Amino acid sequence: MIGLASKYHSLNMKKIFSELKGFVIYSPELLTQYLQEHNLPGNNILKYFVENEHGDEITKSGIAIPIIGVEEDYYSFRISTKGESILNDNEVAAQSEGWIFQSANHEMKIVGIGYLKDISSINEENSITLPLENGWFSFKIRAGNKDGEKLFELNAEKQEAKPDFSGDLTTTYYFT
Predict the structure, then answer these.
(1) The domain that contains 115 carries what CATH number?
(2) What pLDDT is recorded for position 111?
(3) Which pLDDT belongs to residue 11?
C-alpha cells in the first residue's frame, strides 16, 4: 500500500492551494487524540502550532509535518518509497530530510495551513488524502516541477520503531 500513490504518475491528480503559504501533512486520528489528551479545545488549532510548544511537540511526535514558505499556488502531492523517485534530480527545487510520521488509519491527510484556523472547515474539496500503511515512517520532502506542474514528493521509508526526528522546521519551499 505504501507505494500505491506513486504508481500513478499522471499529474492530473488533485491539487490544493497553499493557504497561508504552507501545508500540513497530518494523521487526523493522532492529532485529535493529542488535542484531547492535552486538553486543547476549539477548532482553531493553528494557534497551538504557533503560540506555544505544542506545535513542535506534535511535529517531533510524528503527528504532523509542516511545509512552510510555499508560494501561493496550487500543488499536487505524491508518495514515493525508498529507491523510487517521482521528481528527477534536475526537477527538484527544494528538499528537506529528517521528518517522521506515524500513520494510524492507513492514510495521511494534507491541507493548506490556513485551514488549521478552523479545522471544521476541512473537507474533501480542500484537502488531499493519500493511502499509507499503518506504522512509523521517515520522510524526505522533495519539491519541484514535473511536466510544468508544481509537486511535492513525499519519500516515505517504513521503520520498525519511531525514528529520530531531525527535520528542519525553518526549511522553505519557494520555487517557480
Answers:
(1) 2.60.34.30
(2) 98
(3) 46
pTM: 0.90
Asked if the structure places residue 86 within a domain, the reply is yes
Give tens-digit pLDDT for 29-56. Answer: 999 999 999 999 999 999 988 888 999 9
Distance CA 57, CA 140 (A): 19
Spatial separation of the C-alpha atoms in residues 50 and 42, rounded to whole Å? 15
The total of other beta-carbon atoms located within 10 Å of residue 88's CB is 9
pLDDT of residue 12: 55
Q: Which domain holds residue 66?
A: 14-159
165 is a domain residue: no
Contacts of 74 (CB under 8 A, 6+ apart): 15, 16, 17, 18, 150
Number of domains in the chain: 1
What does 30-87 look like in DSSP terms, one character per residue? Answer: HHHHHHHHTT--SS--HHHHHSSTHHHHHHHTTSEEEEES--SSEEEEEEEETT--SS
Q: Tell me if 42 is assigned to some domain.
A: yes
Contact 32, 143 (CB under 8 A): no
